[in-house]
Design a protein that fits this description.
By secondary structure, this protein is α/β, with parallel strands linked by helices. The chain has one domain: Alpha-Beta Barrel (TIM Barrel). It is 22% helix and 23% strand. The protein has an 8-stranded mixed beta sheet.
Amino acid sequence: MRKLIKQRSVINDTWKYVDEEPAALAVIVPLAQFLAERDRWVGSTAILGVRLTPADDVDVLKNDIARISLIALEFGGMGEGRGYSQAQLLRRRYGFKGEIRAVGKIQRDQLFYMARCGFDAFEFPEGTDFDVALTAFGDYTVAYQSSTDRGLDLEKRVV
């Protein structure tokens, strides 16, 4: 069973990708397939997740956001930053309250910043040391920028 970090704990993943198990109770579908088969997935009894690539526009989900429970945002490596913007848009503009999961080539050093942008789950590449990855959330105790996580911005702290 796949493991991931969710809400700062290591858990077993209960979700399946559609190519792993199409009839799963909780299934993650690529955006292109979701759009091509929208009626099928929106009418399904499965708990629905959608996976976006960095080039995908989150705006195409705005009318279905209430039906989607998980959005997985793909990262191709450290230099890929569009997922941060996608997560911010989902949380702030579209009010998405479900799970936002970082998938792909993510690394420990990105977790603190991803959490600040709205990610609450992290699916790492095979062989990741989860105990080491969890330490990333304690790297900083104060942040200057506003965020969607529970952290309090420096400018809003009472001195």
